[in-house]
Specification:
about 120 residues; mainly beta; 7-stranded mixed beta sheet; 4-stranded antiparallel beta sheet; about 0% helix; globular
């Protein structure tokens, strides 16, 4: 059974940092792209960042470059999202997903999802 389990969310003040983690299990993801998306109230799910599990290539939402960093840890079987200089507009539920398809910027192409973790940034 494939499982993606996010953790690390919380309530922080603007300017703080958080590190989200997505623990993956149930199959080999070596041919998958792992992605982080977020869903804020009243908005559509938004692409945040992706990483190719095999070669480590990354993509980011342009507006988040320099503040967010995605990485994977083979030993722990996790995909992580380091978020620095957080802003109130970063408030959202953050989801981890996995896709075997080339269109990894679209959430519709994802095969597996975690349950999400809430990030709230106060001003």
């Amino acid at each position: 059974q494939v499982q993606l389990v996010e953790s690390g969310g919380g309530l922080v003040q603007a300017g703080a940092s958080l590190r989200l983690s997505c623990a993956v299990s149930g199959r080999t993801f070596s041919t998958y792209t792992m992605g982080w998306f977020r869903l804020a109230p009243g908005k559509q799910r938004e692409f945040v960042a992706t990483i190719n599990w095999s070669d480590g290539r990354t993509t980011y939402l342009n507006a988040l470059k320099g503040r967010f960093t995605i990485s994977r840890d083979y030993a722990e079987n996790t995909v992580n999202l380091q978020m620095n200089s957080l802003k109130p507009e970063d408030t959202a539920v953050y989801y981890c997903g996995a896709t075997s398809q080339p269109g990894f910027l679209s959430s519709r192409n994802y095969d597996y999802w975690g349950q999400g973790t809430q990030v709230t940034v106060s001003s």
